[in-house]
């Protein structure tokens, strides 16, 4: 009588067993390694979101930034979370790990793995932005929470000279284009270094209609104030900033953008042909092209750097 392994049936069973191990090994490679890759991708999304959320609290509140980032990461399934804020409070790094248990790899002796991910978000001055208001303000020592005139009325002195009331011509000229841009924000990109033509004329009624339209859209409760506001509030105007020392004494036909600022409007002042805009200077973060080297004019952006 032949030994089991020399029997044809026995040999077939041995080969089947070996092939089953090989097949399970391939299955483990496909399923468990794929599971590990998918888990790492999900974890990377979690730390990206956590870093962006935490960085919104910088630079003024690094402790709050750490807490927010850790909370976001945890809610998205991350474990072993570490949050670090840079010494200058301009960037935040989130590191996280998550332990995983394999499905098929245990037949090969591998029972668990670990997904790791890291993300860093940095805040910086805005170099380019969409949805800017067709207005321009000269840079000065603005104080957060203080009120400033953004567009003058007829009879008020304008930093851009006679016939100008701090309005810009964005994407075209005329009162209708100005009103649309003031209502909805200019749809194109504006960036530092752009030379933008001014828009002459008072345009008092388009100014009132556009600002009242924005104010009516704000349904936040309690109403937004310079101290407490929603970042997406339609009453926030993103306004290009220029260097007043570079403009001449006579009527200015264009300005060069050096940065961007944000103002919260409360109401349109004046009446008839005397309407003008005032806004509270605020610090906020918007979507746009952020650059840590760009001077900060109160408006900042967040950028994932790795």
Structure description:
The chain has 306 residues and is an alpha+beta fold. It has 2 domains: 4-123, no CATH class; 131-286, no CATH class. Helices cover 28% and strands 32% of the residues. It is built from 4 helices and 14 strands. The chain has helices at residues 8-55, 62-75, 175-184, 204-217; strands at 79-85, 91-101, 112-129, 137-138, 147-151, 164-168, 190-191, 195-200, 236-242, 254-269, 276-282, 284-285, 289-291, 299-304. The radius of gyration is 30 Å and the shape is elongated.
> Biggest β-sheet, characterized?
7 strands, mixed
Quickly give the structural class.
alpha+beta
Count, helices: 4
Shape: elongated
| Oligomerization status of the protein chains | single chain
- C-alpha termini separation: 69 Å
Short structural description:
It contains 4 helices and 14 strands.
Q: Any descriptors?
A:
seven-stranded mixed β-sheet, 2 domains, single chain, alpha+beta, about 300 residues, about 30% strand, 14 strands
